[in-house]
Amino acid sequence: MEYNLEKDNHTKRKFWQGNEAIAEGAIAVGCRFFAGYPITPSSRILEDLSKRLPQIGGVCVQMEDEIASLGAVIGASWTGMKAMTATSGPGFSLMQENIGYAAMTETPCVIVDVMRVGPSTGQATLASQGDVYQARYGSHCPDYEIITLVPSTVKECYELIIHAFNLAEQYRTPVILLSDEHISHMSETIEIPEKQPIINRKKPTSKDETIFGSVSDDELVPPMPSLGEGYNVLVTGSTHDLNGFRDTLNGDIHRKLVYRLAEKIIRNKEKIIKIEENKPKGAEIGVVSYGSVSRAVWEAQELAKEENIKLAHLRLVTLWPFSDKEVISFMGGLKNVIVPELNSGLIVREIERCTNGKTNVHSFSKIGGGEPITPGELLDLVVSLS
Amino acid sequence: MIEEIHGKFLRVTPNFCLGCGNVIVLNSILSEIENLYGTMDGFVFLSGIGCAAWIPSPHIKADTIHTTHGRPITFATGVKLANPDLKVVVISGEGDLAGIGGNHLIHAARRNIEMTVICVNNLVYGMTGGQLSPTTPQGAITRTTLGGNIEYPFDLAGLVTNAGASYVARWTTANKRQLQKSIGKALKKGQRGFAFVEVISPCTTQFTRRNLKAFQATKDELNLGEFIDVEREGFVERIRSSIRENHSMGVKPCRLKS
To answer: Which of A37, A148, B190, B204 could connect to B195 by a Cys-Cys bridge, CB 3.0–4.6 Å?
Structure first.
């Protein structure tokens, strides 16, 4: 199934904010349900969709809080709709229990978190990248795997929200899009592709099919029926068997379920992981970045050329599951790797985990004031390490 | 009779404590669905966490969603808005619906969203061992109020009435006939607005054996009956009218069309 923009009377060139691109990308991939609660810097997504969704047969509802927002999204997803919510740090914290629920019940849905400065209300509503671990480990007992995508441009906001829905539908899992205030409030001109690939969830073909796993170990993503189709769906966040019956004592049933939740992502890692690598031949120093900070790295690469330094760059588009293999391969031959982040140095721990002792890993962290990492600052560090 | 209904509408036999009112509530719901509809087709049951949340899940042979603690009304809101053809019923306890999930209860009533909510008020947190709940009567002994409860309890039926519900009733499990009639009314009304039935069903394991006196006093003070029964345009219906009014876009909404 493909979405044809021409029918929607769009022009292909748009001057959009990141948040607008997220809202429009969601519509393009078939999202027809949105529930949210206002919080800067994500509110524009709720505002746009409150206008746009009713125009195309969708529903947008402003809920009483973020817990309710994700609850409504999960409920809507079980009726067969593609559904999402959008929030920022404090709201993302409130959603964590339901994120675990969506993972455990294998409910496809998309959660957009536009990161802002914390802890707590911190410096509302300035940019940060502080929620990277909350996305992966925020809910209690995160023994499952979760997919998290990080855009670095407005165009990527559009592309990745589409990708997020496709992954959610394909793997029957919640997917998180981690934007930040810089990307979401920045406007850029983007060219919208005419057609987008659209993936829809697999539905059962007979009522004998189990919808929470299969006896065969090869089938990792079970089919998902919708409410009201006569399947007598039994959904619970408690440990359940293949038919959905609660079993809160049997260790084997729990292990089989939870290992499958992780395996369905891990075994498809190669298909899920998106990275962008730019490694000039002979480079000895590199940068690993994600999100808005990557824009400074692109500029720093140009500046480094003027200093006759070859600067390698690895950009993580998929943050979780973590691209260990790609990072290890990138670090081959590099003496120093810098990890610039708008937090106190978080993903640098993952990068350190991937070194074999031959590459030195340096954290370049900046927090507060919503100040971006500048290309000049990065260049200074690159020069001092070269 | 009830055995036949159980055979028709249950996946498994319920296994609640001796004397638990959950069975009366379950039987009343099943009997009224049999009387009014004769089928479970189109029904979706949602519940949170706690003993009452086990009334629909896994027992009732229909679509059931056993949600996170306190949140069944939020999931139900998503289900109803995304597919208004479904008949949405929430069954949960007072700790779930009025304690941790109290915010959702009043906002759903305020929106007058088309759903039926049955709150089994057992006056205590039963599943966790008998701690204070938002409706525990004053003076009652619980595991966290060994000297007697000093807090004022919630009047749930009054709260939901004032928040904007279309139908509100309160009965005890001893008023079986009235309770069943009200549940039937609430199931029908829940297609047009927010319908709420509070069932006083004191926990036999964790509450009454410690609190015969306190319960006796509560029972005498209880205001039972129907609190409100009005026709007000429901949330889905109002979304539909608003779409019709703002229909300059020319695209017919798919699922919300009437």
So the answer is: B190
